[in-house]
Amino acid sequence: MNQKSGRPLYEQLMYGIKEDILLGILQVGDKLPSVREMAQRQLVNPNTVAKAYKALEAQGIIETVLGRGTFVAMQLSGDVDDRQLQIFKQQLSELLTEATYMGLTEQKMQALVAEWYGGNHGIKSKQFSEND
Amino acid sequence: MNQKSGRPLYEQLMYGIKEDILLGILQVGDKLPSVREMAQRQLVNPNTVAKAYKALEAQGIIETVLGRGTFVAMQLSGDVDDRQLQIFKQQLSELLTEATYMGLTEQKMQALVAEWYGGNHGIKSKQFSEND
Amino acid sequence: MNQKSGRPLYEQLMYGIKEDILLGILQVGDKLPSVREMAQRQLVNPNTVAKAYKALEAQGIIETVLGRGTFVAMQLSGDVDDRQLQIFKQQLSELLTEATYMGLTEQKMQALVAEWYGGNHGIKSKQFSEND
Amino acid sequence: MNQKSGRPLYEQLMYGIKEDILLGILQVGDKLPSVREMAQRQLVNPNTVAKAYKALEAQGIIETVLGRGTFVAMQLSGDVDDRQLQIFKQQLSELLTEATYMGLTEQKMQALVAEWYGGNHGIKSKQFSEND
DNA sequence: GTGGTCTAGACCACG
DNA sequence: GTGGTCTAGACCACC
């Protein structure tokens, strides 16, 4: 967890878990580490983990069973929400603007996108599931 | 300026100016509106505009000449900074992760990227140069 | 038993038994399954069943005869406790508030209430008496 | 705020605000008391108020403008989400079951519902807007 | 053991 | 002044 990256810790946690699910490291039905355990592992406060878990639950990505734990719940929806798409396009536009200022060409950009989809973006270690 | 988008107003200003430059609405050497004028146009606090100008100057995109005004200074660098690229790839990865959860496929994604580069994303009015 | 509904399992058990009594599936004097048997059927911990039985007994709805078992004891009281009524009206108010935010009109609401009373809400199988 | 009602304080806050909007005490565009002020008024911790505000924002009922405050944002949607409706019917069923055990008849129940809709349920004081 | 709630108090970015 | 984030530590209900 990068304290000074500017991004909230709980968002970083959310991203890490989402990524692990996309990579297949976490599968539907798998149990996530308990709030306390995750907090210990990631060196953050349990409240911070709880906040991340709750936000993910609100997004329908995980589910919590009181007294039992938290579990991966999601399967990707096939249809795209239009309002979300507008927001996303705005974000993409800003990112591409930045990329252009960095000197990235359209070709290089397309290559980076393809790389992400193709290569499982670099086979990362299981941050959030079993062994750290 | 979208007050409730969650993004800081000064970043939105920065993005708008950067976009105008990419679109050719603002050219190298052009004079930007004064801080006060821009503030009035965009209905924000002058401090907010000043902050945006200062940040853009730090990025080498605009330049202030004391007593004369603020001018577009940049031309895109041809080579890519490696450290910046790493940060960028991280941001891209997060964006693509979100896109996947939204239900966007790789094809659709590539199409969106191509669209941004191709279409000047829809010929917008000069937000930050002439009139609002 | 819906593990992820957020409601405590023992409350769900209580509700199920109460409903069965209202529907006539369980009649006054009928014997309920033993704690162990119910636990096995509903795939919950025996402690959970015991807690539900105890709470129902406290409400005067069932009775335990030591060494013999647990029996349906209740008949509906004709008069309404005023303190209970206040609490109930509060709960109703909250439910109707939520309903309004969901977009339900008064007419639709009245229809839903009538439906519940009229239809025995769909003739369900005996969840908690005979076989599961 | 009733500490021992069993319901979380932040949910009680949410309900109070929703009710005030339905009653017209809070109108679209109105500013809510700041987190700190509301906390002081209701004698709860600012974090608790923040939690309530954030949950309401997630439901689209209020909106926050960073550094400016929190505002009423919503207008009721005309169409009813089917999944929500199922959950609601379940809650209604449980409430009506309890009502029956209390001795409430269908007629009395319909009267209570009509009363809530008709009478603005008793013209309450502005809990959450101007003066307390 | 699990997650949920609440408090107290700190620091920060934004306007 | 506003809300957002994070920590530390407490208590609770549920299983």
TrEMBL record, chains A, B, C, D:
Pfam families: GntR (PF00392). It comes from the Bacteria. Transmembrane segments: none annotated. Keywords: DNA-binding, Transcription, Transcription regulation. SMART domains: HTH_GNTR. This is GntR family transcriptional regulator. CDD domains: WHTH_GntR. Residues 7-75 form the HTH gntR-type domain. The keyword DNA-binding applies. Gene3D superfamilies: Winged helix-like DNA-binding domain superfamily/Winged helix DNA-binding domain. It comes from Periweissella cryptocerci. One of its GO terms (molecular function) is DNA-binding transcription factor activity.
